[in-house]
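=== RUN LOG ===
request id: a7f3
mode: sequence -> structure
chains: 1
length: 198
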Amino acid sequence: MPARIVPSADVDERAVIGDGSSVWHLAQVRENAVLGENVVVGRGAYVGTGVKVGANTKIQNYALVYEPAELEDGVFIGPAVVLTNDHYPRSINPDGSQKSGHDWEPVGVTIRQGASIGARSVCVAPITIGRWALVAAGSVVVKDVPDFALVAGVPARRIRWVGKAGVPLEPAGDGQWVCPQTGDRYVENDDTLTEATA
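=== RESULT ===
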């Protein structure tokens, strides 16, 4: 199925939009952005120059995904989320002259497969959000988030583990965790969580 781009969206002709993707009202997708198959870009969302977005990702209304962000497959970006790209933002240089694109070096947020960023969260680059991690709504993330971690707060810190279903895991003893929804098992070791092998 070809991509669906509504007339009020602003999609640069140099952007690549995968089959089955949808770009909704007032969204902007900048030059050289690459969206995989079945990506949804909600109303008023912004996808910056050269941003890479994996298949089956959802970028909800009014989210701001600044370059050089990289989103892997199956990522969820909640409404009004911001992925920043500047260590030390300033409008002007020390001499008072206005900064241009050549006066700073952008740094990006990387979001791994299946991770979800809750509404109105801010991810301060450069950081990596691990696979299947979950950032609670309204959080400010200033450091890397491990795979399967549920982080919350300002600044965000890990408060639980979650499985692929996004549901908090329950302890099963001896460093083992289980998903109450799927029954999948996980193993914790040195503050990291991995899927249990059969």
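=== NOTES ===
The two ends are 38 Å apart (CA to CA).
The chain has two domains: 4-162, 163-198.
=== END ===
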